[in-house]
Amino acid sequence: MSNRYNFFRFCQGVVGALNRGAWGIILVSVVLAVLSVYYAYHHLGFRTNRSDLVAGDQSLVLLGEKINQDFGSRDDLVVVVENGHPSRTKAFAEALAAELRRHPEEFPEIFYRLRPEAFQKWALLYLEPEQLQELGGKLAEHQTLLAGLAAEPSLSRFFQKVNREFTGSLLGELFVGFLEEDQERHKLPDLTLLLATLRQLKQGLDGSREFTSPLAGFFPEGLADLDQEGYFLTENDKYLLFLVTPRKDGFAQAAQSVQLLRDIVARVKVDFPGVQAGVTGPMALEADEMESAMGDIALATWLSLASQMLLLILFFRSLRRTLVQGLVLVVGLCWTFAMAALVVGHLNLLSIVFAPLMLGITIDYGIHWFCRLEEEQALQGKTNGNTVVCTMRRAAPAIIYAALAAAASFAPLTLTGFKGLAELGIILALGVLIMLVATLTLLPSLVLVTEPFRTLAPAPECAVVPPSFLRLNWRRPGLIVAAGLIFTALGGVSLFFVKFDLNPLNLQNKKTESVVWEMKLLKDSRYSTAYGALTADSLADLKAKSAALKKLATVSHVESVLSFFPERAEAKRGQLENLAPLVEPIAFPPAPAAAADPRALAQVLGPIHFKLARALESEPGLVQVKEAQGLLAEIIPRLTSGRPEIPGRLADFQEKFFKDLRDKWNLLREGVVAPLPHLSDLPPEVRDRFVSPQGTFLIRVFSSEDIWDPAPLGKFVNDLRRVDPDVTGDPVLLYVFTHAFRNACVWAAGVGLALITVMLWVVFRSLKLSLLALLPLFVGTGWTLNLMWLLDIPFNQANVLFLPLILGEGITFGIIILVRWQMEESARVITLPASTAKGVLLSALTTTVGFGSLMISGHQGTFSLGLLATVGSLSVLLASLSILPACLRLLHKQAAAPAPYVNPALSVKRWLFHLVGKEIS
Amino acid sequence: MKKFWSVVGLQLLACWLAVVPALAGAPTAFVKNILDEVMAIQNNPALEGPAREAERAQAIRRIIQKKFDFPHMAQNTLGAAYGKLSAGQRQEFANVFSALFQTSYTNMVLRFLKQETVKYGKETVSGGQARVNTTLERVNDAIQVDYLLHQQGGGWLLYDVSVDGVSILEQYRSGFAREMQARSFDSLLNKMKTQLQAGQ
């Protein structure tokens, strides 16, 4: 008795059993599916952390966890505020802080400012040596004025002194100005102090209670107005950064925290029209990516389902079969979820895509089964139950081989050492096998109970004359093969032009808020929310590493406790000692000398106005002079107006003015004798972030270039590793794991291909046929590469995940066509039977519309995935229906091919004998 | 003999008493004369406008040339350093200083003295030196300008002007001292010459 007959009898038995127990199988399948959903709902977790994608014992992950443990995992969200008008920006930050403090549970920690009071004593040490030198010069120059003012603190005295200095500068410029070097020459004295004071005086005379220190021009920046100090500004002062630590409890909580923070920012912005602010930071980028991808995928899924259903109805010309196919997929998917919960226990950021990926591949099995059934029914009659037996007999082997090949292509992922990929590999490999079981049991059962088969009586043979695909005669197969192979070879060239884009920001939707603000930060201030992290065991080690890091061209700045200490403090201490004799003898009394007399003050201001007016007559374009003259023209009449409220307002202003001067002067007096600050002097929010309980120190290193771009990222990470091989942090993880991910994918694809080749050789017992089965894959891949080059589609971390879909499809098509060609003489005669071609066409089109719908997504990763799936599946389809049949046509002229092992399920023993080359008696 | 000395003393006293009023009036008149001349030039309709500024400057310069004691001022601006210069250096310095001052002062007058009203205030004369206080007024504004003079060759010559209490001579003194301290007298003289050439 031949193998073929045995297999036919076996299929007949299976179909008979399915027919008898169809309802039972359906019931068991559905109950199992419900139980699976229940089990998966309660046991399948969802891990969104990127570190969950790599093995937990990786040294980098352990280092990162240790740093988080020692220094706390903080500042995951960053509110970036455009610093258009500094005082308004800072007022916005204060308002935002007040609002966030009302949500202590959601935002346990905010960090946006170091209170200047904590550093006040050392304020002078934070100035640059040049600023201290300049301050010394000013103190010496204005010594008489200051001493005079301290002796008689009144506005009249102040303006008299200012007038005298102003006149001196004016005459000095006129008579000895030529002695100054060009860069030091000023046509007119600097009027900043005068202008600022006049502005405040006018405001005070008008009854305003507001007061902004006018002494900014006199005191160096940083001392002028302590109320405006201590905020975190980017290097170029373009952005103010507001760090927020949210409650951390999974993806859903992260998304909620990001949304709540955005709502609060929006509310605060209402009171600050024109202020631009947005939320970014690692958590916001992650949440936005997930949100954007999920939102788009939800819409794309519905679109995909609808278009696939429509396609199936159109091709099957049957709603019933479409629904049967859909039910089989849903049940199989439910089983797979339960299996994933049982075997893995959770989904990660990569394995979350298993469902569309698996469905995209396994829907093909049902399609091929139905197409074959259609063919058998067309030849034997619709109600002939023998058609189901023939379908099982002739379609099942190819489907089984295709499923095994797909499982084999995913299996290597489990060995990559990349936890995320390994879990995806396990779920996909087992999922494909589960779907295979569903296709070969539930699908025929459903068909048997939903379609009217009058008899299942055995027939001696299945029908033998299938119609050919489009009735093509394949007259010039050599030409088609040659042309196809040339285009395939071009794919090898294209491979050099298709890059692997490792930049994760390029995957994101460019319009999401976190990406927009991250890009702004990168572009305008060379600042990124991601930084390299390393530790130092001692203060000396910290200093050495910080110094080494600062020398690197790839480093923009370094943050550690040292950043909060003044630089070159010892040297500045010497400078301060020189300032002491200028500062210490002068002390301002607690209150002004006497109430200011408005008329007396007007007389003092008159000469200043006179000189400014004359200067303006000579040169009307002098902006400062014009403003000062305008202010005086308004102030003097107010002072001489005799209005009763003026003396009171003037007295009030005088008091504020001298209090401000006294405070600043006291700051100087305290500063010139203050000892150097120590670690214990730093505020707790700084120590908590940068000093561990064990006494180690954290160093945050920021790149000077775009760390999302792989080339500068590589340079940055390698530079950091030269300073400390144990460096970690987001840039390092990004660099290491994106490369590891790419390499793992390439390795898994290579090993998978080798496994499939071996499997095909076992199946076909012919290297030639095995290679032919791989032809749609190779040719389709070559054409896909050509199209990727032409359409400028790079490989990236998102679309590379769906390469197995294209690979699986290419192999499935090859196996389906080859197995039939080898099994059936009738198929060899016509080269490509219509039902096989229809199955291939429908499979490819379902992939195209199914994944092409992802192109509606604004998420660039999802979009590129859709585009690649579309381009890839159409290329594979074209290769399967043109080059492969043409090759088969050429081959048919040669000797008849050996028969494949079409009855693998019958006997393992038989398989083993075949493998060792022995015949079974 | 005693009577003789008494007579001489009385005569001298009489002379002194006779001379003092004349001397007391002279500084103010001297200054007034200068300012009137300058104001006449500045307010001369024939010389109005930027196009005639060079002519006005020339006319003002001619007045200044005769009214200031440049050698005295030059010596004063250098202080003790003047004594260390050779006769040639002194002469050269005085010449350059004189020309420079005339240019600068002319510029100041052109810039600040236009339609002002000059009010003459207190005049102080002591030991051959005098100070004439004036106020330049325009609408509601006023500025204090004091003229310092001394007797030279039987007449009065200006040697300093103080604006709002700031002396021009003092500006020179501190400026020149800084330059000589930082660099040298030669550097100062070179800069003055360069400035002079630039002004011409």
Shape of chain A: elongated
Q: Helical residue percent of chain B?
A: 55-70%
Terminal Cα separation of chain A, in Å?
Answer: 10 Å
The mean pLDDT of chain B is 84
Give structural notes.
The complex is a heterodimer of chains A (921) and B (200). Chain A is mainly alpha-helical and 921 residues long. Chain A has 32 helices and twelve strands. The longest helix of chain A is centred in the first third of the chain and has 35 residues, at 282-316. Chain A starts with a helix and ends in a 5-residue tail after the last helix. Chain B has a five-stranded antiparallel sheet with strand order 1-2-3-4-5. In chain B, a hairpin with a 2-residue loop joins strand 4 and strand 5. Chain B starts with a helix and ends with a helix. Classes of the chains: A mainly alpha (921), B alpha+beta (200). The interface between A and B is medium-sized, with 22 and 31 residues.
Structure, briefly:
By secondary structure, chain A is mainly α. Helices cover 64% and strands 5% of the residues of chain A.
Give descriptors for this structure:
heterodimer, A: 921 residues, mainly alpha, four-stranded antiparallel β-sheet, 12 strands, elongated, disordered C terminus, B: 200 residues, alpha+beta, 6 helices, 5 strands, 22% strand, disordered N terminus
Give the SSE map.
The complex is a heterodimer of chains A (921) and B (200).
Chain A: H1 3-20, H2 22-43, E1 45-46, H3 59-71, E2 77-82, H4 86-100, E3 109-111, H5 116-119, H6 129-141, H7 143-151, H8 155-176, H9 192-205, E4 239-245, H10 250-270, E5 277-280, H11 282-316, H12 319-343, E6 346-347, H13 354-380, H14 386-410, H15 419-450, H16 477-495, E7 500-501, H17 513-525, E8 532-536, H18 539-550, E9 555-559, H19 569-583, H20 598-618, H21 623-639, H22 645-671, H23 684-690, E10 697-703, H24 710-723, E11 728-729, H25 730-764, H26 767-791, E12 795-796, H27 803-823, H28 825-830, H29 834-852, H30 860-881, H31 883-892, H32 908-916
Parallel strand pairs in A: 1-6, 7-12
Antiparallel strand pairs in A: 2-4, 2-5, 3-4, 8-10, 8-11, 9-10
Helix pairs in contact in A: 1-14, 2-12, 2-15, 4-10, 6-19, 8-20, 9-21, 9-22, 10-11, 11-12, 11-29, 12-13, 12-15, 13-14, 13-15, 13-27, 13-29, 14-15, 14-25, 14-27, 16-26, 16-31, 20-21, 25-26, 26-27, 26-30, 26-31, 27-29, 27-30, 29-30
Chain B: H1 2-42, H2 53-67, H3 70-78, H4 87-112, E1 117-126, E2 129-138, E3 141-152, E4 155-163, E5 166-167, H5 168-182, H6 185-199
Antiparallel strand pairs in B: 1-2, 2-3, 3-4, 4-5
Helix pairs in contact in B: 1-2, 2-4, 3-4, 3-5, 4-6
